[in-house]
User: Fold this.
Amino acid sequence: MNIHAMRAIYKFEMARTRRTLMQSIISPVISTSLYFVVFGAAIGSRIAQVEGITYGAFIVPGLIMLSLLTQSIANASFGIYFPKFTGTIYELLLAPVSYLEIVVSYVGAAATKSIILGLIILATATLFVPLRIAHPLWMILFLALTAVTFSLVGFIIGIWADGFEKLQLVPLLIVTPLTFLGGSFYSIDMLPPFWQTVTLFNPVVYLISGFRWSFYGIADVSVAVSLAMTLVFMAISLALVAWIFKTGYRLKT
Amino acid sequence: MQPVIAVSNLSKTYASGFRALKHIDLDIRRGEIFALLGPNGAGKTTLISIICGIVNATEGTVAVDGHDIIRDYRAARSMIGLVPQELTTDAFESVWGTVAFSRGLFGKSANPGHIEKVLKDLSLWDKKDSKIITLSGGMKRRLLIAKALSHEPQILFLDEPTAGVDVELRREMWQLVRSLKAGGVTIILTTHYIDEAEEMAERVGVISKGEIILVENKAELMRKLGKKQLTLHLQEPLDTVPPELGDYRLDLSSDRGELIYTYDTQGEQPSIAALLDDLDKAGIRFKDLQTTQSSLEDIFVSLVREDR
Assistant:
């Protein structure tokens, strides 16, 4: 195990986060605050409670997930795409590090950053709405699992992308719609039956449902199913990463 | 003695179908400075990239100090430092930060003393806190060398190390390479600049169109392939070369004032003494003479031309 290398990569990535503090932390916090103002205070005041919880509080887990997903993908994809873009990736390929060590370091750094961000948004939320967290440990577990899984997805996107456009494409065209349609702002029960069935094919539903359960003890799908699905997504992402490194896809010719 | 790098039957065909390397066999001796010469696109960088683990080989094997570069990649790679041809660096990281990063990446524990020495050796010490983006091209080149030396490699690859580097810096780099060699480091350099190979290398390999067409001691190469020319400045211009000197296949300069005798150093042609004797008999007088020896560059050009 090349611990020194893992530490070096992790430190390097975290230093990048510190250098880009403004866009990494502050801008998601501001945009989430805007959601609270618009959906929580302005519109939320006219919406009846959802399953016994004020609308403002109901959307908190979904909003955190929205940021967690987009930021995990953005961090991890950029972290590995940029060395490819500048060419400094040669050093990573040259070094005596295993693929597992590379993935753990990059994904670990990206996930750390988005978990910190998630917690900051959570703290911000308490300024706007009354919050309670029924299962704090589960909350942290879902936060961590989601951050890691989507950082893996981001890592894959970063390796696949061969231009800045592609780097933006997946988050914009797939992840954001899935999150908005994944029950961030509503309970699936509010949808017509047909759309409820369609929604069950959206992986993000399970993440948000499980996460919301850890707050309020209410869920669209059972928490066991949420956890299982989250682990399945993680396994799929891991398998893809393993394949990438085995074949050298987009890394080695 | 076991070679420090053993390349055997190495081939590379890119996805485009381009055959960059064809059945390369090459041994690098421990502690030597080896120069790999070849025209653009000959396969120099591909060969180095495969040895270092950046490019996958299509067939064949490479062992670094006995460690297979695939099966035993950790042991093999920890020995190697590579200075790439392109100036690829981060932009916003500091000089110190990026060199320390490289050391960590190669699994070495932090050693500020060593990094300080490397930066000082490369005249980068006063830039240690600067962001890389603020460095000049020559400084970036030296930074890449510092990164490659950060983990105390036993084998150093320099891919076109002095491309775009000014004369003074080039001398400094040669000096550094010599001191590394003195410290027991094996150095493999690719270059376009023949004088660099001539100045530095002990052995020279010439690669052309994906094949190693020659590996030789530099001195031996110069002796074998080096041609000498004797130029005689005549007292009286000649209209033609006299027929009795036909054996020497002399050339007459366009102003007819010089006779040029080209001979190789293996001594299969008649000796200079015999020529001078025969000139005397033919009554040709000269006021001066000079000899020139072909450089590695001439040898290289003629080799690659033959291969085409």
Observations:
- DSSP finds ten helices and 14 strands in chain B.
